[in-house]
Every structure is written in structure tokens, then in C-alpha cells.
Amino acid sequence: MPVVMVTQKAINRLYAHGGDDVLPLKSQPAKPFPLALRRLFTKRYNSNYNMTSKKTFKFQRTIYSTAEHCCVPLCQASSKYNSLLSFHTFPSDAEIRRKWLVAIRRDKFTVTPHTRVCSRHFNKEDVREPLSETGRRLLNKGAVPALFEWNNFTLPTSRPGVWERRERPPPMTEDDGDAGEKADIPMDHDYASASDPAVVDLALDDNMSLRDEILKLREHVEKLTMNQRFGIHRFAASDKDIRFFTRFASYDLLMRFWALIEPSLPNMVSVTQAQRGTFTEPSSTVTRFLQPIDEMFMFLNYLALGSKQRDLADRYGVHQSTVSRIITTWSNFLYTVLGSVRIWIPEEKIRAHLPAEFKDYADTTVILDCTELRCQCPSSPLLQSEMFSAYKSHCTLKGLLGVAPHGAVTFISQLYAGSISDKQITRESGILSLLRPGMAIMVDRGFLVDDLVPCKIYRPAFLSGRSQMSACEVRETQAIARLRVHVERLIRRVKEHKFFDTEIPLRLFGNINQLYTVACLLTNYENGPLVKAWAKKPE
Q1: pLDDT tens digits, residue range 28-46?
Q2: 0.70 cut: is pTM over it?
Q3: Domains of the chain from N-terminus onward
């Protein structure tokens, strides 16, 4: 009998799977190993080991100092305890590596040179057994793991292809079915025979009902789509909602205002165009995320409700930076368009529309008053002292407003630091260039501008050290106060825009003059007459 020399490594591989009665061999010198015994162990090895088996081998492997582990989820195979398994690295081909990651359900897994997949997850056809006891198992080219815990280590049965021949089912016999029940076999339609009128009428009724149901469903879908999209058309049917979101009294007034500014839209320069310097670029080529009318509606929401830009971005489904660009673009656009309309009314037109309440002050051209807006305090002490208002006890921005006797805004100054006096703001605002001799202005006690204006001034009387005013002065003061209250009502209309309720942040100072001027000018369009009794009915 020939003698075969078997190495210690081969003997350990044979004994490791032998069963509970076989222990791993200690390091021994190589000894002759009978061929019959070798065949016996080889047969036992082949019968017990199955590549798809889920059995965990518990006999420790001692021939390697480092252990390899399988990276497949739910698989705990390790070369330290499963000596009969082979562990394979990921292929270098990117496409096959991707297939491996998808197969083991670890798409975003980071593969390293030490990442392994054990042989129990491959088909037998994909694994090449070693030619010798000391050889290594290799994978066929393109092999992909397919046997896992979640598919019970089995392959799914494949459906036969379209062009594969299939066995024809055996013909049905009378014994297979119920002899007492015979199925109605539809015959070919006889086109020469007329249909039953009742059946035709029933089919027509069904068609009509289905058509009506389809129309109702379409209307319902359109309504849901309209309600889901936040914009002006969603609230067009409710004047109450329009007033809440825009401060316009009704949808009709808002559409009239839109008709006035819509022809100027082709000349609109967006903030993006201004930053790039592409002023000559047609506005139609600018990317718009919203329709122009919805952009205007968003801007009015910003003024009327004081909405935060993040809130508007969520409502309209756009990015917050898009909201910022739209607000800046529309504030500049309306500042230019509405500012190009002459709001100063000539003296003769004012007298033609003078309310009866002003009969004792018929030469009054404008009622002047100042308003202050609270703003964020700057960090510079010098700027704080300039912007601090003793009247508001806070840092403010101050502006001068002029109102015609019938209630229309006729003059809007720019905003100044809150510490400026009424006299100084009258000098610097530009109102003096509009006044002429023969006119008259109505002001509050703080406007000591007698040496500045070239016209008459109606102002409440001062005590000037007296204990009380005369009866004539009291009557005149009360009359002026009753008429001056209308400019205060106009200022209240401006401040009904919730944007001015909170402190104006310093980051908006570059755009605050436009926002303030537009809010003041919009009062001429948003509501009806300031005093309804003064409104003249159209002839």
C-alpha cells in the first residue's frame, strides 16, 4: 500500500469538522497517513460540509493568527471558528462590486481591503474548489453572492421565458367539472340582430352617470390643487381674506391696482440682474419660480402681515433666498413705478375738491405731520445718539408725511435719524420747494417753521406763559385738532402694515426707504376715501 504524506494543515482541516468526538490536533511533525484513512476523512468532509449550510462550526482554528469575518448582515461566520469556509475579498471591477453591495443589502457600506464575504453565500457553480489540500478556493469571474439568511439560503425559482416551450395542460374531461352545472360559453356576436332596448338605455344611463362623476372628480381635483397652492387665486373669492393678506379692501381694488402696474412689468429689473449688471436682458428670459401676480401677492403679505421670509418660503414652496430676492425686486419696482406718479396736487384742484369741513381754512394745501418707526439700535455709541428719539425713548427712523384736505397722500419724505427735529426735517425733506405764497399748511405745535415756509401756517395756539388761552384761541385749536386728526388716521393706515410693528433690523436699512415709501403710497390704492362723507359720487 502506498504511503501518502499529509501535512499538519490538511489534517487539521479534516479533523475540524469531524464531530464532537474529534478534537483539534496539536502541532505534531508530519507522519505517514494511510490512504484508506485519508479517503475516509475526505468522504466524511464532503458529506458534512455544504456551502449553503447555516451550521456554525465551534471548533477553534489554530493555524492562523488573524481571523477573517464575513461582512454580510446576520452572518457571523469567522475564519477563527469556521475553518472550512473560505473568505473572499470584493472584486476590483466597479460594476461587479456594486452588485455585491446590492446583493448583501449594504449599498452605502465602505469597502476596505480587509472586507470579506464567506463562501456560504455563493452558489456551488460560482466556486472553484482547490486542486490540492493546501490550495485556496477561487470565485468564477462575475460571481455574485446570492444565498443569505433572509432568503433561507435558497435561490428563487425563475419563471420560464417568453420563447421557452411549455407543457400544454391536459384537456378537461367531463369528470373534472360538475356535470350538473354547465358554463355559459359566449358565442360570436351577431351584428345583424338588434340589441335589447332596455340594455341599451341602461348602458347609456351608466355612461352619463360615469361622465358626471368624472366631471365632479376633475372639479374636485382642480379645487384641491388650487387650495394646495398658496397664491392670490386661492383667496380671490373672499374680500375678507384679501384684506387680511394685502390690506386692500377688496379683490376688485387689488385687480385694479394690478392693471395699473402690469404694463410696466417688462421693464422690471430683478435684483439678480442688478447684481450681474445685465440691465438690458429681457425680463422674459429671467427664471421665475412664481407668476408675477403671485410675487406681488407675496410682497403684499410681507408688508401687511409682517411675515418672516422663512414662513413665506414655506407657504409658497420656494427657497428663502428666492423670497428675499422677490421682496427686494418688488420694493424697488413699486418704488419706481408708484414714485413716477405725481402725487402733489395743484392748489386749484385741491380747492375744487375741498371738503365742507375746511370752509374756514379754504386755503389749506397740505396737512403735515411726522411719524417714527422703531428700529434696531446700532452698536456705535455715536449712531445710537443720532438715532435715539426722546419721544419714543428708543432708536427710531423719522419721516415727514403730507396729506391733502380730502385725505390723499401728497408728500412723503425719506427717513431720517430719530433725533432730527420737526423744523430740521421740514428744511431737508424738500417740502419747501412745493409751497407758494397764497397757500397754507396745517401743522402741529412742534413745527416752528414760520421763518422757513413762504406761506400761511395753521397751528394750535400756545399758552406762552399765560394761565389759559382765550375763548377764540380755544375754538381755533379745537377746530384745527379736528381737521388734523385725519393725517393721524392716515399714519395709522400706514402702520396697519404689520411690517412696522416690530423693530426694523439693521440689515434692512439699505431697503427701508423703498419699503416705507411703497407702504405710504399704497394707502392711496388700498382703501376708499379717508372720510367717506367727503367722497363725491361719480356723475
Answers
A1: 444 444 444 444 444 443 4
A2: no
A3: 1-48 (no CATH), 63-156 (no CATH), 233-339 (no CATH), 347-534 (3.30.420.10)
